[in-house]
Amino acid sequence: MSTTFTIDTATSRANPTPAPMKRLTVPAIQRRKFEGKTQEPLVMLTAYTARQAQLLDPHCDMLLVGDSLGQVIYGLPSTLAVTLDMMIAHGAAVVRGSYHSVVLVDMPFGSYESSPQQAFASASRIMAETGCAAVKLEGGEAMADTISFLSQRGIPVMAHIGLTPQAVNALGGYGARGKSQQEHAKIMADARAVAQAGAFAMVLEGVMEELAVAITDSVDVPVIGIGASAHCDGQVLVTEDMLGMFDRVPRFVKRYENIAQTIDGAAARYAAEVRARSFPTDDQVYRPKI
């Protein structure tokens, strides 16, 4: 079980601190899929900060500290430049800000691919320094031995197959996968390989719906879809995409709000009041008490 850290509400804006409750566990997530079926789909969103985690935590089963933070937080062109230190810093913040969800941290590009031993060194550091419950890594059959190595040493692993952003250069872009019969068979083989290797769940990204349905029905572990199918055992989205923080989002994203417009409007009102010297008002300044 992951560690829960308490936020000091006397010094932190991230309050009120939620009432303590038992955190979900990896085995609890696994048990949600019983005899090949998941009655209530699993809910997962990305989180990168303590406050964001607090707001999302009551609604989610899992919070993913995704390497997508490279693009969402740092403005990088891809996830490839994300470092282990970046993932650990944000992972620790999300654990501190949550009390209910299973927190997973992405293993960044270059931190696990060369050998199972390298992966263990990186994953053990992530878990020790963040308090998270599991790690996520990209790759199918090629990563099966690594997943097995980690799982046998007490590190729960969520696999990530289909469209794998860390392999964007090899894939030639972010287009949907599984269109050809050959690619369909390869991704199906990847799903079976990571499940057999001991992954407790898998993210299935950017694949044709027919393939997503087939994979969900053919493996015993939960399949979390993103650009896949409502038939999957759960869904994940990048929170900022879901909230409408960016002008351009993938086709598979549904915007539930337009937060960018809200922020733009608030900043415009603030700027206008500052320039008009109508802010701050009497309510926002300190004066001697009479």
UniProtKB/TrEMBL annotation:
Region (Disordered): 1-20
Cofactor: Mg(2+)
Quaternary structure, from the entry: Homodecamer; pentamer of dimers.
HAMAP family: PanB
Reactions that this protein is recorded to catalyse: (6R)-5,10-methylene-5,6,7,8-tetrahydrofolate + 3-methyl-2-oxobutanoate + H2O = 2-dehydropantoate + (6S)-5,6,7,8-tetrahydrofolate
Active-site annotation: 205 (proton acceptor)
Gene3D superfamilies reported for this sequence: Phosphoenolpyruvate-binding domains
Organism encoding this protein: Sphingobium cupriresistens
Pathway connected to this protein: Cofactor biosynthesis; (R)-pantothenate biosynthesis; (R)-pantoate from 3-methyl-2-oxobutanoate: step 1/2
Residues at which 3-methyl-2-oxobutanoate binds: 67-68, 106, 136
Enzyme Commission number(s): 2.1.2.11
Gene transcribed to yield this protein: panB
Residues annotated as binding Mg(2+): 67, 106, 138
Cleavable signal peptide: none
Protein name, UniProt field: 3-methyl-2-oxobutanoate hydroxymethyltransferase
Top-level taxon of origin: Bacteria
Upper classification of the organism: Bacteria, Pseudomonadati, Pseudomonadota, Alphaproteobacteria, Sphingomonadales
Family per similarity comment: Belongs to the PanB family.
GO terms for cellular component: cytoplasm
GO molecular function: 3-methyl-2-oxobutanoate hydroxymethyltransferase activity; magnesium ion binding; methyltransferase activity
Gene Ontology biological-process annotations: methylation; pantothenate biosynthetic process
